[in-house]
Amino acid sequence: MNYSAGWRIHGVVSETRELKSPKNPDWRGYLAKVQTLGSTHEITCEDQAQWSTLQQLKGQAALLGGEFETVKGALKLILKTVEKPSNAK
Hints:
10% of the residues lie in helices and 58% in strands. By secondary structure, the protein is mostly beta strands. It starts with 5 loop residues before the first strand and ends in a 6-residue tail after the last strand.
């Protein structure tokens, strides 16, 4: 049996980071932190275009969605969609 679940977060993008590997110079990883009503969520972004969008939204509201993934027993939030809310200015 295989279960899948998605998530959606409406919050403020507070930080974006690009990760690099000294062992593999071509590899890149992307992380973002999103704040919502007293909670901070760390989101893994696998797509460079979405990461660029998150960088532009830093300090602004964003509506994010994605999937859960377990990595070495830890639950990670994997970004699949990012958009600026229609009521945000």
